[in-house]
Amino acid sequence: MLIPGGVLLVAIILIPLIIGIWMSLLNLSQYTIRQWLAAPFVAFQNYVVVVTQTQFFQSLGVSIGFAVVATVCSVPIGVAAAVVTHNSFRGRAVVRSIFLVPYVIPSFVVATIWRTIMQPGGVWTGMLTSFGVKSSLWLNGPNAFWTLVIVEIWASWPFIYLLTLAGMQTIEHQVFEAAAIDGVTWGRQLRSIVFPNIGGPLALACVVSVLNHINNFTLPYVLFGIPAPDNVQTLPFLTYIQSFTVFRFGLGAATAVLSLVLLAIPLIVYLRMVRLDVGKES
What's the rounded Cα separation, in Å, for the pair 96 and 98? Predict the structure, then answer.
C-alpha cells in the first residue's frame, strides 16, 4: 500500500533533487542548455563562485532577517487571535473565517494588492501622511525591506493562529471550568494552562513559518519586480536571477542546493528537540 506514495515521492521530490544537484556540478548556461547532459563538468566550481563572487551571503542575511522578524511579529498576533476565538460566542464561525482570509488568498494576489497600495501617492503613503509620517518610497530604497516584512506578516499570521488554535483545542474544557471555580484569573490561566499546552504546536508553527518565509519567492518578485532593491533580494530571488536573468543555470542550481542545506538546519534542530522531549516523556 505504500508503493504508490513511494513512487510519487521518488518522481516528484527525489528525481528533481538529483537532477538539480547534477546541474550544479555542470557549466550549464544558455549556450550549453540544449545539450546539458554533455555540458562541461566543473565539480564544485559553481559552489565556489556562489560563495565568493555573488551576493549569496547578503541574500542569506536578508532572508534570515526577514524571516525572523516576520515570524516574531506574527506570533503575538496569531496567539491573540486564537485566544480570542477559542471560547464560544455568537458569530465565532464568521470571525474565524475572516481571520483566514489573508492566508487563503494566493501570494500573487496579495503582492499585487499591496504593490498598488504602497505606490507613491497611494493609500499607504496617504494614511501615513495623515499621521504626520512623510515617506513616499516604500517599494524602493531602505523602506523596501520593511514593506516586505509588513506584507508577509499580514499574509502569514493566520498560519500561527491555526496551529495555536489547534493546540488549544486539545485542552479539556473542564480544566478551564475548574480554574474558574477556584477563582483563577484569565491571565493566570494563560500562563499556567494555555501556554504550556501550546508550546509544541507553537514551536512547530515558528519553524515552519521561518522556512516558508525564506522560501517565499512570489511575494518579493511580484511586489518589487526585477531589478529589485538589494535589501529585499532573498535567496529564492537570487536563484531566479542567476538562472533566468543571467542564464547561468549551473550557478543557480548551486545556489538552490546551498539554500536547501541551510534550510535543513533549523528543521533538523527542531526534529532533534522533539525526539529529546519524546525520550524524556517515555
Answer: 5
Taken in order of first residue, the domains within the chain and their CATH numbers are: 20-28+39-281 (1.10.3720.10)
Average pLDDT over residues 37-62: 90
Q: Please tell me whether residue 100 adopts helix, strand or coil conformation.
A: coil
Half-sphere exposure in the Cβ direction for 262 (13 Å, CA): 18
DSSP 104-165: HS-HHHHHHHHHHHTSTTSHHHHHHHHTT-----SSSTTHHHHHHHHHHHHHHHHHHHHHHH
If 0-12 CB within 10 Å is exposed, 13-18 middle and 19+ buried, where does residue 220 land?
buried
- Could you tell me how far CA 89 lies from the centroid of its own chain? 32
All three cell numbers of 139: 517599494
pLDDT category at 132 given cuts 50, 70, 90 is: confident
Angle at 68 between CA 66 and CA 74, to 5 degrees: 100
Q: Which residue has better confidence, 270 or 255?
A: 255
Distance spanning both ends of the chain, measured CA to CA: 30
Q: What is the pTM of this model?
A: 0.86
Lowest mean pLDDT among 60-69, 112-121, 158-167, 189-198: 189-198
